[in-house]
Amino acid sequence: MLDYKKIVKKRSTRVRILRMLDFVPDRLMLKIQYLIKTGNQLNLKNPKRFTEKLQWYKLYYRDPMMIKCVDKYDVRDYVISKGLEEILVPCYGVYNGVDEINWNVIPTSFVMKDTLGGGGTSVVVVRDKNTEDIEHLKAQAKHWTLQSIHTKGSGREWPYYGGKNHRIIFEQNIEPYKDGTGLIDYKFFCFDGKVEFIYVMGEREIGKSVQVSIFDRDFNRLPVLREGDAEYKNARKPDHFESMITIAERLSADFPHVRVDLYNINGQIYFGELTFFNASGYMRYNPDSFDTDIGNKWKLPQRYDLKQ
Questions:
Q1: Which of 84, 92, 261, 274 has a CB 3.0–4.6 Å from the CB of 170, allowing a cystine?
Q2: Separation between Cα atoms, residue 43 and residue 61, nearest integer Å
């Protein structure tokens, strides 16, 4: 397996290279990337692994609702439509560009995100605005909004380049940093509206590292690790866990597969995001058999290809 990040160390350089490869057909690019990142040949005709089925999902299941649900602002309407407005993190505003932002009305503590972003480079947590370099925050936000709406990237996750513009969203900072525990992510992997397994992620340094443990739907720790990440040994079953399962299954019911991210702050449940292509389908597990075990739980739907 080729670790291309060791060869091209700067992320910005990797992004530029990938942009130059936009002309490569999606099917071919996914086969190349899958081999590079997992070390396995991609079987699209008869996919067995969960990670293989995610590649099939990218290519052949294109429900327009997914475009709305990957947008960190527009997805709020979807959550409301499911009768779950109470789990939304308070939003301070969404802006098309940096010049629209009135920084004087933004609270002292907040989270700034790219509405179409993914990963640590698309989230900035600010605990005290008065100690931050506002010009740096402006530059970061401007970088997000200047991204091309048609840039595909290596993952070829089509909802993110479906023609919508990148915007800047400000939300309340719900991180319980005062008690030293940090924010814990509960990521519910749902298939046809049923939770099958859960990531619990803690000890996160945004854009750098995170610890991960994997549980079944009854919160039994599974003897599985996600390669490249340390095990999150301090994971504990949160209050109102059964309510989190119910919420995840309600939000996932419309899709063959989606990951529903939730937070739980002292029993108060908050919505994070919906993700259709976890880690772009390029993750590896130890033992490797877990990839197939999960794949067996996902019965792929009929093709829903907008090009047909």
A1: 92
A2: 16
